[in-house]
Amino acid sequence: xxxxxxxxxxxxxxxxxxPVHKGILAMKASLEKKSNGKLEVKIFPDGQLGTERExxxxxxxxxxxxxxVSAASxxxxxxxxxxxxxxxxxRDREHLFNxxxxxxxxxxxxxxxxxxxxxxxxxxxxARSFYAKKKSxxxxxxxxxxxxxxxxxxxxxxxxNTLGGSATPMAYGELYTALQQNVVDGAENNIPSxxxxxxxxxxxxxTFDEHTMVPDVVVIGTKFWNTLNxxxxxxxxxxxxESVEKQKQYWQETVAENMEVLKEANVEFLYxxxxxxxxxxSGVMERMMKDEKMKTxxxxxxxx
Length: 304
Description:
Blueprint (H helix, E strand, L loop, with lengths): L5 E6 L7 H16 L4 E6 L7 H10 L4 E5 H4 L18 H8 L2 H9 L5 E7 L4 E5 L14 E4 L3 H10 L2 E4 L5 H6 L5 E4 L1 H6 L8 E8 L3 E6 H4 L4 H35 L3 E3 L3 H15 L3 H12 L1
Parallel strand pairs: 1-2, 1-3, 6-7, 6-8, 9-11
Antiparallel strand pairs: 3-10, 4-10, 5-8, 5-9
């Protein structure tokens, strides 16, 4: 009876308490309902099957079906995604989602198919800001001489170095120990990740400079996608789209809860003059504009 049932293995690196994981659960429920149980999703959270990069490679060879990764990680495979990591490109959350859910976002999701990775939808991953162990970052000059962990992608490294820090790329799973042992002085991420990783136990200074709004991407390997018939593909795409609104809601709720946790843990919040950061980081966008293709996309985004 179950011979036509297909199981989609979905691996990601976040804990089950994370709002992105909750979004994935919503997608799973929706897909299993739409397909009447013909398509089921088995989730492997917490980096059980490897880092973001390793999991993307597993998708490319067809070993697993799906993952959720940062758009920054996607840029190592499909260069068009680099645009999402440009500091201060998005004015606010509304602008970000107008772009992601419009023509630019659609083109981005499709751009990775050439690399055997098909984007299904974007999830909210908030804004990324700096946090540190020994001092608060009030202005870019405070980053001078600080070793800041970044994601392992060119744009993140460029951004931190341009702002004056010393970018130190490393896997997310290694960061807690690296902070404890002073291998790095700080990192940058959104509030839910700062909390679920327990980095707030080590770092007591969080600066809302909000330098980037790098979304998360739900991705399916084209090898697996091509094993689905048209109806199954449609169910999956619809389930992914439906989960987006729920995930955004989970994100907002989680941020509110997390802020309470951080206040209780005596984390010091700083709301700096963002213009000092955006001015210092502007060289990153200027360099990207030298690429004609990228320039066109950036101009489209700024005009929205």
